[in-house]
Amino acid sequence: MAAIDEHAYGNIRVFENYFDATNASHITEAQGHRSGNLASFNLFLSSVSSATIYRLIGGKLYQESYSSMAKVKYAALDTAWDYVERYAEKTIVVTSTGSVYKYELDVIPASLVANFYPSDFINLNQWTIPDRSLTAEDSVAHSLSPASLRVSGDIVYIKQNKYSEAKYCFGGIVSDTFTILEEQDLTMMLDVASLNQKSDYVKTMWEVKIIYYAENGVSVIDKNPLKVLSGNEIGFYEITFRPTYRHFRIYLVVNGSDIGEQFPDAEMGIRSFKMFALR
Known about the structure:
Blueprint: E1 4-9, E2 12-17, H1 24-32, E3 34-35, E4 38-43, E5 51-57, E6 60-66, E7 70-77, E8 81-83, E9 87-95, E10 100-107, E11 110-116, H2 118-121, E12 127-128, E13 147-152, E14 155-160, E15 170-175, E16 178-179, E17 186-195, E18 205-213, E19 226-231, E20 235-241, E21 247-255, E22 257-258, E23 261-262, E24 267-278
Antiparallel strand pairs: 1-2, 3-4, 4-7, 5-6, 5-9, 7-8, 9-10, 11-24, 12-15, 13-14, 14-24, 15-21, 16-21, 17-20, 17-24, 18-19, 18-21, 22-23
């Protein structure tokens, strides 16, 4: 359903609820999923056709027979539709073949800030590839080290493409400007599908950096991007933090620099990048 974002990696399943009580389409959607005064979305478990599931919700343990889906509450109707109270769920799944899996579920009030899939990264209206010849147009983004992009299937590959005179092998792409409310936490989710490496010791690192802007959303506060998330392994990564300023851009970086060695062919593949503003 449109108001729910889902990601599964390994035995962990994460959901973010961005139901908007002022959005007519979300209200209609909730009404269509109504049972009594509650609306639920369907939880489908990867590679599970029949199982017994044990769900720990609010300190109470529930046992259910799972055939195709489980129901998870996300909105409630009183005088009007609104979020359900936030809750966390831990669940054990025992399949008919005896396999055991576990997942965690957290339903939280949030608003969607960004939702990028592979084709979005090559959209020049959403992302900028730094180009030093264009610094007159944007002295912040185009002064940074660039990357090159290609899309294959459900993965976008981002390869560092540093300026020739740069000492280190890293480069990236810069997002458009985002704006959130004051005193609001932000959750980033990055699905890293692939990373190459030069050797067992020289690996490609991915980095998510942030560039803050003043209240006008145009004047940059600091031209040096600040790192908020990084790693050198594939997987699903998530971080929640409170931005220092309301207006910002993201610098998504591939880094092939290591102590004593450089990796000019450093490249990462990602499936998606999402951001939610938590309420």
